[in-house]
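ok here's Ras-related protein Rab-21:
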Amino acid sequence: MANNVHDFKVVLVGEGCVGKTSLILRYIENTFNSNHITTVQASFLKKKLNIDGQRVNLAIWDTAGQEQFHALGPLYYRNSNGAVLVYDITDASSFPKVKVWVKELRKMLGNDVCLVIVGNKTDLEKERHVSLEEAEQYSEAVGAIHFQTSAKLDEGVEDVFLGLTNKMLEQA
Ligand code: GDP
Ligand code: MG
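and the structure:
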């Protein structure tokens, strides 16, 4: 079905301030803002990809900050094909939150949902509080791909969305 256009919904989840909005803005607009970005222009941003002749329309959903109030409900992630679960490598408490999200998304969206776990802020390696080994082992155990990124320095960001898209294409 090489001529098919695949429409995929992708959600970003994770604790507030881990860099979800920054990852999206780096990927789509190639920009970075050192302030916490509280205003959202739209509930999702679009990205068109062509992977080996397969056309993909990504709708990448960002939160409006509801995660700060633990109020990110099923309306946000329903019908998602994939999810990017983000933690901050300098914030130990942000990693257990990813584990909660893995359980929630698998329960609500089923085992086929494609999950990518992302440790962001690798430019702050000196302040690392989540070990790479722990994150890799956990990701493998739950069948998720693991990436490390810096939205600030533009490291690994494209790999996240390409890796997830390839996985979603395999499942499609
Ligand atoms: P969100 O609440 O998860 O959407 O997080 P934001 O994207 O608003 O980012 C929260 C804060 O972390 C902001 O001050 C960003 O500038 C900062 N930030 C995001 N990504 C990085 C990164 O890769 N490195 C560093 N040093 N700071 C980052
Ligand atoms: Mg945000």
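+1. The pocket of magnesium ion (ligand 2) is lined by residues 20-21, 37, 62-63, 65 (CB under 6 Å).
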